[in-house]
Amino acid sequence: MLDVAGHARLHPAARTAFLEALDQGWADPRRLFAEARRARLLLDDAREALASGLGARPDEVDLVPSHTLALHGALRAVARGRRRAGSDVVVGAVERAALHHAAHFVAVRGEGRVRTVEVDPHGRVDAGAMVAAAGPGTAVAVLQHANGEVGTLQPVGEVQDALRAAGVPLLVDVGASAGHVDLGGAGDVRVADAGDWGGPPLGVVLTRAGVRRSPDWPEDDDRWSPGGVHVPVALAAAVALQEASAAREAADAHRRALVDVVRRRVAAEVPDVQVVGHPVERLPHVVTFSCLYVEGEAIVERLDREGFGVGSGSACTSSALEPSHVLAAMGALTQGNVRLSLPPDVDAADVHRFCDVLPRAVADVRAAIGA
Known about the structure:
Elements: H1 12-24, H2 34-54, E1 61-64, H3 67-81, E2 88-92, H4 97-109, E3 114-117, H5 127-133, E4 138-142, H6 156-166, E5 170-173, E6 189-193, E7 203-207, H7 231-246, H8 248-269, E8 273-276, E9 286-291, H9 296-305, H10 325-330, E10 337-341, H11 348-368
Parallel strand pairs: 2-3, 2-4, 4-5, 5-6
Antiparallel strand pairs: 1-7, 6-7, 8-9, 9-10
Helix pairs in contact: 1-7, 2-7, 3-4, 5-6, 8-11, 9-11
Pfam families: Aminotran_5 (PF00266)
Enzyme class: transferase
Protein name: Cysteine desulfurase
C-alpha cells in the first residue's frame, strides 16, 4: 500500500490500546459511577497526550468524531464568534474541498464573501497576498499547513504573525502534517486528523486561548463536540500520535529519500509526465505526478493489478466529473494524476519495484486508448 492519506493502517500499539479501552473505558465518562470515572480518566489522559503531541494545552483540545466535522465545526464556530467583525472568509485556493464548502456556507449565511488566494506553480500561497486579502470585514482566514495532495508546505508562520497583528484569527488545517512533521506554533485554531498518523478516525481541534468561538448548533453538555467521543477511539488516537512522534525523525529520513527516488525516476523514465509539488519545502511522504493523455483512475486500476495501492488527485466524486481543484489552481497537468502517500514503515523495495513497473503500466493504458 503506497497511499495511506487520511486512512493509515491502525498502529499496532493503538490497536492494543483500543482493545484494552473497550474493557476499561466503555462507560459514559459524563456519569459518576466507578466505571464512568475510569472512562473519564482515560479520556483525560488521551486529551493530555494529544495536546502534548500537537503543541497545545489539554484545555485547548476538543475531540470530534471525524476530521471533516472538525473542520466544518471549527470554521463555523470561529466565524460566528467573529460575526461583529464581518462575514468574509479568506481561503487558499488549494485548501481541501471540505474547507472551501464550509467557507462558502459561512460567508453566504452571513452575507459576506469568500476571498480566495491563488497559489504559485508549486501550490504555495504568497504570504503577502494572503495577508492583504484579510482586510476589513474578515471573520477568519484559512490556510493549510501543507497540501496533502502534492505535499507543498505553506508559509504558515509568516501569515500567522501578520494576521495576529491585524487581529484576524488563522485556522490551520494540519490534517496532512500532524504526526509527520513539526507543526511549530501553527495557527490560532488547528485541526488535525488522527486517521492520518495511524490512529482511528478522529478530528482534533486545538484553539488558542483568546480566540472567540460561538457554536451555531443546539446546546449540548459537550459544547464543542455534541454527544462526546468514544473513549477507546480517543485513547487509540493518542497512543498512535505518541508512536508517530517518537519515530518521526527516522520516518522522515526514510520516506523523504524514497520520495526523492520516485520524483527523479518518474521524471526520467515516464514520457510526457509532470511531477508536481515543491521539490524541497514539502512533506516527507507525499509525491504526486500527472501523465498526459490518460485518466488517473485508469492508471490507478492498472497499478492495482500489479499489487500497488495508490491514489489519484484527479479522482472524480460520484456527483461531479471534475479534475482536481488543487492541480487546476497550480496550473498543473490534471490528466493521469497519481498520488503516493507513503506509510512510515514502507518497504524501500516496494517503492523501487513501483518505479520499475510504472513506465510499462502508463504505456499500456495509453496504448489501450490509442494515445
